[in-house]
């Protein structure tokens, strides 16, 4: 709990951050030897390996700490979790921050490859570099206390989203767009482990259900914002979606002070 939990989430974010760094590069290299079908074959093989590996993981939660209620009754816990205002505000911060990130993920290939004409390999390196920004941000966040890291990240993403909007709307050179997205994801790295830690600390009484809410909400919003960036001019729609998400995350942070 406390700062130790934040450090744990930061470490987990650093490890997880290797995937978006390496996978686009690996996919780009794979396309040199196969077509798009080969990508899906590779994903299927990875899925099979993960499915088999799942059987070798043992439950780590002590027997005495597990909920001993019928399965259907566990869903009643969600009502208690959702009524915790501070918990839900941390969830909102995490959700809207990841919404901005998903908007970037959904739009980046169209922006960098279709408009700026980057090759698949160049785009892979570009995407990987921006993935590295999250890793760096997560590592730096562990050096600060939770509130300061969260505040830094939220101010940073809000101003970075304005920078992104300027670069996209005025169609600056590709290096400017890359730098803008790098800064956005750098400060995103400050928020994700910190908001996760603070949310789980608020919902620690029902840790499993709290973790489920924490996992569901950001990806649900990701499914909503991803098609939105394709409406109209992708440069304008991406700018708007990212700015609105970062603004709502910041407003949620302001709401924390009122609850406190």
Uncertain segments are none
Series of secondary-structure elements, N-terminal to C-terminal: HHHHHHHHHHH
What is the rounded distance between the termini?
19 Å
The CATH architecture term is Up-down Bundle
Could you tell me the CATH topology label.
Growth Hormone, Chain: A
TL;DR?
Keywords: Cell membrane, Membrane, Transmembrane, Transmembrane helix. The protein is an all-alpha fold. Helices cover 82% and strands 0% of the residues.
What report would you give on this structure?
Keywords: Cell membrane, Membrane, Transmembrane, Transmembrane helix. It is found in: Cell membrane. By secondary structure, the chain is mainly alpha-helical. The protein has a single domain, classed as Up-down Bundle (Growth Hormone, Chain: A). The chain is built from eleven helices and no strands. The relative contact order is 0.17. The mean pLDDT is 88.
List keywords for this structure.
Growth Hormone, Chain: A; 82% helix; membrane; MFS transporter; 0% strand; transmembrane; cell membrane; MFS_dom
Task: Please describe the topology of this protein.
Blueprint: H1 2-16, H2 18-30, H3 36-54, H4 71-74, H5 76-82, H6 85-115, H7 120-141, H8 146-169, H9 174-202, H10 207-228, H11 234-259
Helix pairs in contact: 1-7, 1-9, 2-7, 6-9, 6-10, 6-11, 7-9, 8-9, 8-11
